[in-house]
Design a protein that fits this description.
heterodimer, A: alpha+beta, Butyryl-Coa Dehydrogenase, subunit A, domain 1, Butyryl-CoA Dehydrogenase, subunit A, domain 2, Butyryl-CoA Dehydrogenase, subunit A, domain 3, 3 domains, B: alpha+beta, globular, binds flavin-adenine dinucleotide
């Protein structure tokens, strides 16, 4: 058991650290309020700078602009970015989840066209999966794509909770292409230009008051014949790849989001009365146990990945631990500091407001527990009403159920 | 970075599992509640070399680390095997530290297991109360650590009492942590020396976990070389071993719960298809894996990051204690009525959980210790 860098990793770390020391002056504030457009431009420039130095998409293959290095190198970069107190990349969704999906399922032309600008932050991406009537039950989406005789597509429908859509250039969108097939069978993944005619983006404000996600409407949007990613009607398999990367990003990335025991310890320790209060200590010790477990479970996961193992659904457990641990921490800090913690200028107000939503983002706790229970523990699935039914007949069936 | 067991460690774990599988330990645990004698697993521990696990090679030991000790403890915990390593291993870790103290002959016998030692623990002071204390027989007021007065030729007399000492009954040597004017000190005493009393305690609720109340009345023993650092470390090593035992027991509870959830049907469905059951079992899994990660952390810190060992072992103890309590209760409730009966094994795991959680300050104290370690660390960094 060894958490030290190999000589090669140590050299890489030194290189990253030196680069960050030199370039940190160009980094925008980690989380600024104020003008969004300015902030996005600053973060975009910062991602470009990181990408040019080779610190974005570290694990991506070299042919797609990445460094072709192992996941441990990516961890070194993340750790050094956190240590330097500078923000990470603007488009974590693209680089962490959607790019890898394109690499796994996209055509050569798609990889050629989209990956490099994504890496450099020139074109930010968003994930157009969830809909008003389909989140957990993602395969129930209704956004419809119809193929024209010339091979092009017509897209109509609505997506929701789309993070970063307000400044994204492209979206990876899951649409229904064969409603007469079973729910999971008639889906196709598409690349959608966000500036296409018929796309309308409306911001949705979150608990924090900030509009970080959106609803996106598609009104007969025309897509080129080569817009499909992966096989037509094979979109579910493509979506599963994205979801796998999503769980990995949220679970393993939570240290980078600042959900660390030592950070919360510093806030509590600054109040000497709180630091000796038995109730505060009991609560802090319990949540610190969770966050430390998260950190060292992450190292186990990385060890497995660096040996070429593919993380299974149990990676989703890290998300549950991270979110609940951080919620407990925010709650305790607000109890210690009082209403001041909720002031918009406080370090904690955004964290406290953001976490209830993060519980749902990337799969709710209930859905993750279903998946782990069935796929890791081998427990039998729940009975379901949508098995073996053509999607087009499902709604009628659901209505019948509600009526009876 | 490599945060996994080595091949040797995997082999050690397999060997331990294999050794315990030859004895019907769970049945024995139940029969012991009715007064039957427990199988003597000390010879097994001797043959496997576990008795000398933490002693240096020059003393006849294997010079392995805390993680190896934890792997053995986890396998013992899985099958509720009563093997007095929780007393012996921290005691030998103290005896191993520094030159002087016990003679080579005695150390060799501790390594081979010819002599069995028990650690008579004292809790190191913390940021709230610097005093070293021991378990009281009852209640929240902790007792002062035994008083040690040094005499000639490396001898000392010890006075004081320590309640609920694991594996003290039947030990040949007691390694007690006490206080002298300058600070904490360890003294090795013969269990049958004048002034030493070991009174069997507990062992009724969980027969596989022998405990004893130890009293020293001007008892004479040999001062050991271990300093404050080693005496602190021994306390947290014992915590890590209790956590490791818990992990093994949690794994067993989960396996049994999952198997039953697949085969028991109600309302035409396997009960494991109900979310109330499924989600509770994923929670057992989550706690199990968190405990494992924290034990790896503790094992790694013991060797490579001694400053963090107290926090790591405390976190492991906190996670493991809560995990076993949760897993044992789930084992019972998943099994419905039979889970609550004497015929089933679930009550044995439940009993183990309830006693283990209260030893050496209890899991609540481990939570508080973790908080104290992190908060003082943060204050120092600020
Ligand atoms: C901050 C944030 C950012 C997001 N960003 C994006 C994004 O960029 N792109 C995107 O596509 N989506 C995004 N989402 C959407 C997110 O993926 C969904 O909110 C999530 O999958 C849940 O879907 P839903 O909102 O439709 O809730 P539902 O699926 O309607 O769930 C409602 C409740 O029912 C429970 N439930 C549902 N089914 C079951 C079941 N089988 N068993 C037990 N309980 C069940 C759920 O756990 C939940 O508590 C984001 C969400 C948030 C909050």
């Amino acid at each position: 058991m060894d958490l030290n860098d190999t000589p090669e990793q140590a050299a890489y770390r030194a290189e990253v650290r030196a680069w960050l020391e030199q370039n940190a002056v160009h980094a925008p504030a980690t989380r600024g309020r104020g003008d969004e457009q300015e902030a996005v431009a600053a973060h975009r420039a910062w991602q470009r700078r990181l990408a040019e130095a080779g610190y974005v998409g570290v694990t991506w293959p070299a042919e797609h602009g990445g460094q072709g290095k192992g996941p441990l190198h990516q961890v070194v970069v993340n750790q050094e970015i956190a240590r330097a107190g500078v923000p990470g990349i603007l488009d974590a969704i693209g680089v962490g989840m959607l790019g890898p999906t394109l690499i796994a399922h996209g055509s050569d032309e798609q990889k050629q066209r989209y990956l490099a600008p994504m890496l450099h932050g020139d074109e930010v991406w968003c994930q157009l999966f969830s809909e008003p009537a389909a989140g957990s039950d993602l395969a129930g989406i209704q956004t419809r794509a119809r193929q024209e005789p010339d091979g092009s597509w017509r897209l109509s429908g609505q997506k929701v909770w789309t993070t970063n859509a307000q400044f994204a250039a492209y979206g990876l969108l899951l649409a229904r292409t064969d409603p007469d097939a079973h729910k999971h069978k008639g889906l196709t993944m598409f690349v959608v230009p966000m500036d296409a005619e018929g796309v309308t983006i409306r911001p949705l404000r979150q608990i924090s008051g900030e509009p970080e996600f959106n609803e996106v409407f598609f009104d007969d949007v025309k897509l080129a014949p080569d817009a499909a990613v992966g096989p037509v009607n094979g979109g579910w398999g493509v979506a599963l790849t994205t979801l796998m990367f999503e769980r990995l990003t949220i679970g393993a990335g939570s240290e980078g989001m600042g959900y660390r025991a030592d950070r919360f310890a510093a806030a509590i320790a600054s109040d000497p009365v709180a630091a000796k209060d038995p109730e505060v200590r009991a609560r802090f010790g319990a949540l610190a146990t969770e966050l430390l477990a998260l950190r060292f479970t992450g190292y186990r996961l990385l060890t497995a990945i660096s040996r070429g193992q593919i993380p299974g659904p149990e990676a989703g457990m890290g998300k549950i631990t991270a979110v609940n641990g951080a919620i407990a921490a925010g709650d305790l800090i607000a109890d210690v500091l009082g209403p001041e913690a909720l002031d918009p200028d406080s370090e904690w107000s955004y964290l406290i407001s953001f976490l209830p939503g993060l519980k749902s983002a990337g799969g709710t706790e209930e859905i993750l527990r279903n998946t782990v229970g069935e796929r890791v523990l081998g427990l039998p699935p729940e009975p379901r009403l949508d098995k073996g039914v053509p999607f087009s007949e499902l709604r009628a069936k659901e209505r019948q159920e509600v009526a009876s | 970075m490599n945060f996994d067991l080595s091949d040797e460690q995997v082999l050690l774990r397999e060997a331990a599992r294999d050794a315990f599988s030859r004895v019907r330990t769970v049945e024995a645990a139940r029969e012991a509640l009715e007064g039957a004698a427990l199988p003597d697993l000390w010879a097994t521990a001797q043959q496997a070399g576990w008795t000398g696990l933490l002693l240096d090679e020059q003393h006849g030991g294997a010079a392995l680390g805390a993680i190896d000790a934890m792997l053995v403890a986890a396998e013992a915990g899985r099958v509720l095997a009563s093997v007095p390593l929780l007393g012996h291993l921290p005691a030998t870790a103290i005896a191993n530290a520094g030159a002087g103290g016990l003679d080579e002959g005695t150390l060799g016998k501790l390594a081979s297991g010819e002599l069995r030692a028990a650690y008579v623990p004292a809790r190191p002071g913390d940021d709230v109360d610097p005093a070293w204390t021991t378990e009281p027989r009852s209640g929240r007021r902790r007792a002062p650590a035994p008083a040690v007065v040094r005499g000639d030729e490396g001898l000392a007399t010890v006075s004081g009492s320590v309640a609920w000492v694991p594996d003290a009954v039947g030990a040949d040597v007691l390694v007690a942590v006490g206080m002298e004017a300058g600070g904490p000190v360890a003294v090795a005493l013969g269990a049958s020396a004048e002034g030493v009393t070991v009174e069997p305690a507990g062992g009724v609720y969980d027969a596989t976990r022998p405990l004893g109340h130890v009293t020293f009345d001007d008892a004479c023993g040999r001062v050991l070389a271990a300093g404050e650092v080693e005496l602190r470390r021994a306390w947290f090593l014992a915590h890590a071993l209790i956590a490791a035992e818990s992990l093994g027991a949690v794994e067993e509870c989960l396996e049994r719960s999952v198997a039953y959830a697949k085969e028991r049907y109600t309302f035409g469905r396997a009960i494991g298809s109900y979310q109330a059951i499924k989600h509770a079992l994923t929670e057992v899994l989550r706690r199990q894996e968190n405990t494992r990660s924290l034990l790896y952390y503790a094992g790694w810190a013991y060797d490579s990051k001694p400053d963090e060992f107290a926090a790591a072992a405390s976190a492991a103890r906190a996670a493991g204690g809560a995990a076993l309590d949760f897993a044992a209760r789930e084992l019972i409730s998943v099994h419905g009525g039979i889970g609550a009966t004497w015929e089933h094994d679930a009550p044995l795991f439940f009993r183990r959980a309830q006693v283990s959680r209260r030893l050496l300050g209890g899991t609540g104290d481990a939570v508080d210790r973790l908080a104290g370690e992190l908060l003082t660390g943060a204050a120092a960094a600020a």
